[in-house]
Structures are given as structure tokens and as C-alpha cells.
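Dear colleagues,

For the upcoming journal club I promised to circulate an example of a predicted protein-ligand complex. I picked one with LCLJCK34 because it came up in last month's discussion. The inputs are reproduced below in full, followed by the predicted structure.
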Amino acid sequence: MNRPIVWTIAGSDSGGGAGIQADLHTIKAFGGHGCSVISSITAQNSVTVSMVEPVLMQVFTSQLAALESDMQAGAIKIGLLPTGLHAEVLAKHLQEYRRQWPVKPYVVLDPVAVASSGRAMADANLLPALQRQLLQQVDLVTPNALELEALSGIVPDSPEGLRAGAAALLAAGAGAVLVKGGHLTWPAEQAVDYYTDGEREIWLASPRLETAHGHGTGCTLASAIATAIAQDYPIEDALVLAKAYINQGLQGADFVGRGAGPVAHLGWPENPADFPTVVMPGSELGDRLGLTGKLPQGRFAAMDTLNLGLYPVVDTVAWLERLLTLGVRTLQLRIKDKADAEVEADIQAAVALGRRFNARLFINDYWRLAIKHGAYGVHLGQEDIEVADLEAIRAAGLKLGLSTHGYYEMLRARELKPSYLALGHIFPTRTKDMPSRPQGLERLDRYVALMAAEFPLVAIGGISRERVPLVAATGVGSIALVTAITEAQDPDATTLELLALVEGDNAQRQ
Ligand SMILES: Cc1ncc(COP(=O)(O)OP(=O)(O)O)c(N)n1
Ligand SMILES: Cc1ncsc1CCOP(=O)(O)O
Ligand SMILES: [Mg+2]
């Protein structure tokens, strides 16, 4: 596999728990190739920092030049900069990379100024240089509560204070801000991270972990985000993965010296318990954080099985009838962009057919008509979550399937307790213009490992007859298809073959 290049520009920690050393562990764990630009050499162990020595400016810029001429970065993580001058010089280099490089690196700044022991790690000129020059060159800055206060002058002692502090960093030029919740004193029982790019907010919560350890968490989090982005994960997935990596690493942390041990580096996060909760409007925590909106009041009706099997998605009642007659038992009517009045008769007919064949028949999009005609279930997309009356669908007893396109959307959908989750699009598809990138089998594998115990899962998007065995091998319980069936030379024979492939002995042929 091609490992994306990720640079860390940071200080060396002789104790091996933070700085360059933590960054390189993390970059490797996330599948990147780590390159380092050492900004300063620290002498420290698990109990004290005894020396911080900035590297000569020529040593600093020679490392940048060496990498720049041969090993252009997909993402750059910046940690400790020992002087304001190092920050100024770096800002100029970053500006130049953005101008010259064909692919712009994603830059994450972890604004380290004070060690966890309380010792100042940088000179007094660093803060103004960050504020006036470096912030403008970064895509994401990741302060903790103390660093946010130092950079913005605003004390984040409430959600409003936190939002105001983050807004000040956006105004200073940062592309986005992630405030880490570890040092916030509220909410008491959860460590809540806050992300904003000025247009949207994401709040991620995990229970506070009782541990004496955690040296290097800030460095590790920023490196994990940078490497996930270099792997082409969208920012919201990078945030979720990085927080899961930290939670896993804190659980596994132990003494190395006499003091606080380093966060452990335990590979790609896979345990659902390590993943954060997406704080939803309408939840108790959401209310406390000032989010507005509603949540459904309970779970959606459960499916009768975790394995929904072959799942054709078609646009006419005639197709539904043909497939039901062949023995298909999970199907969807997907008619796009028509007025309710134009589709009502088809939806009514589809619901009646589904009942006659005792099938799991989902209606895409038209949730009001689905409720009105007593459909078995509704399938909705991410955009619909904001606008559909989910509680009305739930209260009417309809099943709900939700589309997701990655870690963050899966975790957000999880909070709505739907009947199944769809994961897509797995391969490039001609059927629909997708704003996200194809997920591929490796990511599908990981999603299935994470969510399969909790929800029936459906894979969709670009799944041809030939790809069905590969998709089925991930353990996903259902495979949704459009063109593999509707454009097959012999749709009936193909459907029977697919039923046997996906459902094996459980295929209910008539
Ligand atoms: C099983 C299944 N998965 C995903 C989709 C896509 O739904 P959505 O995101 O709402 O997009 P449209 O289908 O409405 O274009 C689906 N329909 N079925
Ligand atoms: C509706 C939809 N949602 C995600 S991909 C997709 C289309 C799947 O069609 P095909 O199986 O022809 O690629
Ligand atoms: Mg839809």
C-alpha cells in the first residue's frame, strides 16, 4: 500500500512519550510515512523537563528544505516551536508550499507552549507569532482549554466562552479549530471536544478516563488527525478516529518511568467502546451545550434479522413485483425528485405488494407517504436527518434505514437508533452523483467490524455481480444493488444467482 507522507515539525522528547517520538509512532499506526523536522531538543523524563534547546535556525530550515525538495507532505503536524522566530520562518515556508506544491498539504497546529509539568517550553515571542502569522497558514489548530485562553484571551468556562474563543482563532486566520475537552472543567463526567470551521459545529464526547497517565496526548491527537487526512479521510472522520486512538491509548497507558506514562500506541482503533459519541441536538448533553433540535424518543422498530440479504433498489412497481416473485425479500422503491401526488399511487401499490409477499419493503425519501400508507420501512439519507420528522416515523412503527458515508456519519446515525445502517458508496457508481469518495473494501471491513454487532448493515454503491463475493466476505449482512440487476442481460437469472451468492441456503425461492 502507498503510505502517505506526513511531516511532524516538533520538539524531540528524550523520554519518548511526546513530541517527535509520539508523532512518529502515531503516523505509523495510522498508515503514514513519518518525516521529522526537529525544532528543539528537550531533555525530559516522565517527571521533569530539565532542558529545552532550540535548534539553530539553519538546522531548522535545512531540514525543511531537504524534505521540501523530495518528500512533499500530504499533511503536516506542527507541535512545539521554541521561539517566535521559528514560528515566523515556518509560516513563510508554509505559505510557499501552498503556492508551489501541486497538492496542498493539510496543516494541523498543536499550539504547545507549556509542558504538562507547568514548565514554559517556548520564548515569550511565540504567542504573538502564532497569533499574527502561523494561524493564517494552518487548516486546523488544536488547543486545550489553557492554550485556547492563551491564544484568544477568552476563558472557556462555558459553551458560550468556548465558542467565542474558537471564533477568535478563526478570525485570526485558522481554517478550523478543535478545542480538546480534557482540561475543561465542564461537563464533569464527559471529555467533550468541540470542532468548528465557522460553518458547522461538531461535539464529540467520551467518558473521562481515570488514569495517572497520558503524556503526549496532544501530540498524538494532532498527528492522528493529520495522518487520517493524508489517508483521504474527511475531517469529521479524522476527528473521530483520533479521539478513538487516544481513548484506546489512555486505556492501555502504563508507567514507563516513575511519573505519568505515555499514551500507548496500539494500532488502528477497532473497539466500539473507544469511539466517541456524537453529541446530538435534543440529547441531554446537547441541551447543556446549547444545541437546538429534536431527537426521536426511542429506538426504531428492530429488523427481524441482522442479515438483510440481497437488497435490490429499483424505481418502478413492476420491478418490485418481478423481484418479489423471484424470491427477493428485502427491497426498496427509489423514485427520485417527483411531487408527492405523482408517486402516491406507486407507493400505495408498493406497500400492498410488500405485504402480500411478506417482504421488507422500504420506501426511499417519501416518508410522509410511507407513514400515510403504512409502509414496512423508510430509507433516508444524511440530509434528510435534519428535515424529516423522525419521531413521526418512529411513532408510526416504521422501520428506518439510514445512509452513512464514513465513521462520523455512522456514529451520528447510531445516536438515532435506526433499524439498519447503509454504508456507501463502496465502489464508483454511475447511478448517483456522490459528494464523498468511494469507501473501498478495506474501509468497509473496518466499518463492519465496528458496527455489525449493533445494527444490520447494508453495503451499497458500484457493487457488480463480480464484486458481490468480495463484499460478502467482509461479513456485511446485506448487499444493495441497482444496475447489477436492472442492467443485467438476464435480470431474472442474475437475481437468482445473486440470491444464492448473498443468502446461500436461506434464499426463499418460490
Ligand atoms: C440501501 C440504501 N442505501 C443507501 C441509499 C442512498 O440513500 P440516500 O442517501 O437518501 O440517497 P438517495 O437514494 O435518496 O439518492 C439508498 N437509497 N438505499
Ligand atoms: C442510491 C445510491 N446510494 C449510494 S450509491 C447508490 C447507487 C447504487 O447504484 P449501483 O448499484 O448501480 O452502483
Ligand atoms: Mg434519499
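Two points we might discuss: The first helix runs from residue 19 to 29. The CA atoms of residues 44 and 472 lie 51 Å apart.

See you all on Thursday,
B. R.
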